[in-house]
Amino acid sequence: MTDQPMPGAEHTLDGDEEALTKLRALRGSIDNLDAALVHLLAERFKCTQEVGELKAAHDLPPADPAREAAQIARLRRLAADARLDPAFAEKFLNFIIEEVVRHHRAIAARPRPEGAA
Ligand SMILES: O=C(O)C(=O)C[C@]1(C(=O)O)C=C[C@@H](O)C=C1
């Protein structure tokens, strides 16, 4: 027998109460932040759903590339100030906008009653 730890055992927190307490506290904060993100996204999608209805009613295009470019530039600046990777912030916004545009297209494709605005 040797005194070597079991392979991988050096990565477990078994027996290290202080580390476990810290991990639990951090995970509690992560869970709260994830919940906040879900609520923020739900509110954002409520707004964009209304934008989609407005655009469809007035025959406006689902996507607005100029607006997106301005949003991305702004978000990249905010991310850099917050020490978040601007490339990640851009990817995240693009991911959301892609879904929004998909919703806008679905709304525009819905049959509209005759004479509707
Ligand atoms: O502002 C708009 O025109 C929207 O439709 C909203 C939104 C967004 O999710 O922020 C989505 C699609 C557009 O290309 C630009 C922005």
From TrEMBL:
GO terms for molecular function: chorismate mutase activity. Keywords: Isomerase. Gene3D superfamilies: Chorismate mutase (1.20.59.10). Residues 17-108 form the Chorismate mutase domain. GO terms for biological process: chorismate metabolic process; salicylic acid biosynthetic process. This is Chorismate mutase. It comes from Actinacidiphila guanduensis.
